[in-house]
Amino acid sequence: MTAESITTTPKTDLKNLTLPDLEKFLQGQGKERFRALQVFKWLYQHDARTFDEMTNISKDLRRELSETALISNLEPEAVEQGSDGTRKYLFKLGDGNGVEAVLIPIEGRNTLCISSQAGCAMGCEFCLTGTYKLTRNLTTAEIVNQIMAVERDLITNPPALSVDPGQDGAESDDGDDDDGQAQSPAGIRNIVMMGMGEPLHNLDNVIPAIRIMIDGNGLQFSNRRVTVSTCGLVPEMARLGREIPNVNLAVSLNATTDELRDRIMPVNRRYPIRELLKACKEFPLPGRRKVTFEYVMLGGINDTLQDAKRLLRLISDIPNKVNLIPFNEHEGCEFKAPTRAAIDAFHKYLIDHNVTVITRDSRGGDISAACGQLKGKLEKA
Prior knowledge:
Blueprint: E1 12-13, H1 19-27, H2 33-44, H3 59-68, E2 69-70, E3 76-81, E4 87-92, E5 98-104, E6 110-113, E7 117-118, E8 136-137, H4 140-156, E9 188-193, H5 203-214, E10 226-230, H6 234-243, E11 248-252, H7 258-264, H8 273-282, E12 291-297, H9 305-315, E13 320-326, H10 340-352, E14 357-359, H11 373-380
Parallel strand pairs: 1-2, 6-9, 9-10, 10-11, 11-12, 12-13, 13-14
Antiparallel strand pairs: 3-4, 4-5, 5-6, 7-8
C-alpha cells in the first residue's frame, strides 16, 4: 500500500456535538456514558482548549480523543469599540470567510448578537450582509465559538461603559429577571441570532447550537435569554417551534403591505404577510412571552403614520412587542434613515394604542456598526 492510497478519517470537532451526540460518539469508541458529561463540562464550563486540560480524565482517554477528535476555537481578527461601549468582533474562519458578532453592553445583562451564516441568500434590499451573497452555513461549532470567544474577551477586557437597558431593542427579557441563571455582571446575559445570515436557513446547525447554549451542563443560558430572528421562512418557523419551543422569536417584518415587502424582502414572494403572521400566531411561545416584530424604518418608504396604523392592525391578534430600528445608512444603498420626527410619531402612535414598543438607539455609530461593515472595511483595506 502506498502512502498516497491511505485515507485519513477527518477528526470530529467536539463542539459540533450536543451532549447526547457526544455520548453516542464516545460510546462508539467503547467509552462509558458518563465520560461524555465530563468532556462536555470541560468544553463549556471550563473553556478547555486542549484535551490535556481535562485533568479528571485518564491520560489514555485524552490521548485517544486527540487522535479522533479536536476542539475548535475562534479568535477575533479585529475588534472595534464605540464610545457607547458597543463592541464589534470580526472572526476569520478557517477557509477565509469572515463573520461578525456585536456586544451591546447593558449593566448586568449584556446582549451578544451572533451570526449564523457567512453571507446571506435572502437578498433584503436594505441589508449590507445580503450584498455579500451566501458563501456557506456556519457549523454548530462556529456559532457557539463566537459566544465563547466574546466571553473570553470580557473576562480579560470587561466593557468600560453601559447603556440604558430600556432603549435596547435586542433585549430578550420579558420583564421577569428571576430566571435562575447565574450570570456574572461582566458576562453575556442574552444571545440574539440577528447577525450575519438567516438563522432559519441553517437550522441543521442552529438547532444543535441552541441546545448547547441552553444545556445546563453546556453554556447554561436560560431559553428565555435566547432569541432567534427570521425574515420569514414559514416552514422553518414551524420546525423551530417543534424542536426548541421555548426560545424567543423575532420576525423582521419591515413593511405593512405585500407590495412593499415583495420589493424590499424577496422572501415575501414565497411567504406573504398573511402566511407569515399565521405562523407567528401558531408559534409555541410559553407563558407571557411575545413575538418581537422588528421594523427597520426606511426614510420616506415605510415610516408614515399610515404604516403605523397598518402595522397595528396586522399584529393586533398576536402577543407582540415591536422593535423600531431606524435604518443605518451604508455605502451603496439607496435607502435613507428616517427623520427624528417620523420615528417619534410612529413610536407615539403605537404606544398610544397599548403596543409595547422600543425604538432601538443606534449603537456603535462611531464604529462599523451595521452587520458586514467591519468585514467590508477590512477587505477594502
